[in-house]
Amino acid sequence: MKQELEIEFKNLLIKEEFIMLKEVFQISDKQFIYQENHYFDTQQFSLKEKGAALRIRLKNGTYILTLKQPHHEGLLETHESLTNEEALSLLHGQAVLKGKIRELIKALGVAPDDIQYFGTLSTYRAQLKYKGGILVLDHSHYLQTDDYEIEYETTNFTLGKQVFEQLLHAFNIPIRKTDNKIKRFYIKKYQIEGER
Q1: What's the CATH fold of domain 2-195?
Q2: Quick one: 100 exposed, middle or buried, by C-beta within 10 A (0-12, 13-18, 19+)?
């Protein structure tokens, strides 16, 4: 198990802005790495109600279970490595959560055994070092939706915010209210469920 504080700034992009930033930073298509985020919650969205999120990420053939919880300067992430068998069992509803993440979910007042798989968001991600942090370009696909995003990951909230906003300003990209990926996924899922 590993814990870390995630401080990141994000902004949705239109496709043309995404292409322009790829060109400006000279990022080729082959620099984008494919990853899958498999999201979990209870039928009542209990984790979401607590401001938390649970996912299994598949990246480079490795599965990592991550619980994100609110923190005053970002999100506290708790990570646990999973074997392929453990990940697939959770995805198919044939296993229950174990370990530290199970205990943290219980501490939130959510029943770990009520957690179920909700769906997958796949992302092509490129990242590069930028002004003391990491600049990330993402093209994500989920529930018949494509979106484009820029993120800036840093260890200093104040400095990171300044660097990120200066970058957006330099390229005339408007600041857009940008929910994290899991929230965008759930908003779309609610929309689809409501249409049924």
Answers
A1: Hypothetical Protein Pfu-838710-001 (2.40.320)
A2: middle
